[in-house]
Amino acid sequence: MAAVEKQASGEGRGIGSYLASHLREYGMILALVAIMVFFQIMTDGTLLRPVNITNLFLQNSYIIIMALGMLLVIVAGHIDLSVGSVVGFIGALAAILMVDQGWSIYAAVPFCLFIGIVIGAAQGYWVAYWNIPSFIVTLAGMLVFRGATLWLLEGQSVGPFPREFQALSTGFIPDLFGVKRPNITAIVAGVMIASTLVWMGLRNRQRNAQYGIEGEPLSFFAIRNLLVAGAIVFVAYKLATFRGLPNVLITMGVLIVIYAFLTESTVIGRRIYALGGNRKAAKLSGVKTERLTFLTFVNMGMLAALAGLIFAARLNTATPKAGVAFELDVIAAVFIGGASMSGGVGKIVGAVVGAFIMGVMNNGMSIMGIGIDYQQVIKGLVLLAAVIFDVYNKNKQG
């Protein structure tokens, strides 16, 4: 019995062997840490200044939000090339409704989200029920909604938006304790989140031990939780010394928790992974593969619409070129975060880490004054390296 408990706790093997067998899971996190340390040194400490950390969240929020939906699409074995154009189209629609037509934010925002759902449903229908390759359907969608954006805006920028709408992206949670700086609400929130994550980790570890499931070594578990909790409290303190918690960070955090729960603890989440792993086997097992595929695209359309609203609110104007090449950043973030090209593999945390890797690289290279030409080359090489890493791991395990 004691031997079983020892194996369940992971003490039967060292940290090195555990990391080697979970390289896909922890490799990108280590890469993110290394990239942040590199740019922190190269930018003379600018990267982790409070104002820059806040900008990192504001600049990458819409990429992270779309990465959550793109992960499900890619895990299901498909891809969506239209998300950048949908972002631009929804931003243009919001501008026409609120700036030109005088709609209130409470009417325009739900309507735009509904249109995003309709767009996702329209594309998902052809992919799921007509078996048209998602690459073709969403490539067509990319062209259609880019043209629709130009048509709506008539080639001009439209703005500014009402202040209530701008707060969607650029607003901050007020300090409930009235201190203002440092923002005590942000510090308390960081401590509570860190404590909750540690408690959940301990509970899962105890549950795994009861069922004899092999877990990570105790020393690695302690170090990992200490580093994660410390990083969360550190970021919360940095934000507290500037303007506190951005509204968009709360939105992003809630969505990450919801989608992490959906993918790891629900039947529909497990079925999406089964669908991407082996479509025929999933269908024979009773999974309604067509409906599941349809729903992943509906979800992607809704999140792309939300990202479009957040991006438009941040710019405070809708422009014909909004969302250009966003789909590349989103897809790259998901693949860099560990998703497999063949479907069935990938985690929400990985997609978020991948998005932050892209965001930190963009931010750090911009601070260093590296030109956009070199930035694109470097990001392309990083994406290629991530895919090669995925293929290498798969071949090694096979």
What order do the helices and strands come in, and which of them pair?
Blueprint lengths: L1 H7 L6 H7 L1 H20 L7 H26 L7 H18 L4 H26 L3 H20 L9 H8 L13 H27 L7 H23 L6 H19 L1 H11 L1 H6 L4 H27 L10 H11 L11 H20 L4 H26 L1
Helix pairs in contact: 3-16, 4-10, 4-11, 4-14, 4-15, 4-16, 5-6, 5-7, 5-14, 6-7, 6-14, 8-14, 9-10, 11-12, 15-16, 15-17
Can I get a quick summary?
This protein has 398 residues and is an all-alpha fold. The protein has helices at residues 2-8, 15-21, 23-42, 50-75, 83-100, 105-130, 134-153, 163-170, 184-210, 218-240, 247-265, 267-277, 279-284, 289-315, 326-336, 348-367, 372-397.
Bin the strand percentage: under 5%
| Low-pLDDT ranges | 1-12
Number of strands: 0
Mean pLDDT figure: 88
- Helical residues, percent: over 70%
List its salient traits.
mainly alpha; 398 residues; disordered N terminus
Question: How would you describe this protein?
Answer:
- The chain is mainly alpha-helical and 398 residues long.
- 76% of the residues lie in helices and 0% in strands.
- The protein contains 17 helices and no strands.
- α4 (50-75) crosses α16 and α5 runs parallel beside α7 (134-153).
- The longest helix is centred in the middle third of the chain and has 27 residues, at 184-210.
- The chain is globular, with a radius of gyration of 22 Å.
- Mean pLDDT is 88; it is low at 1-12.
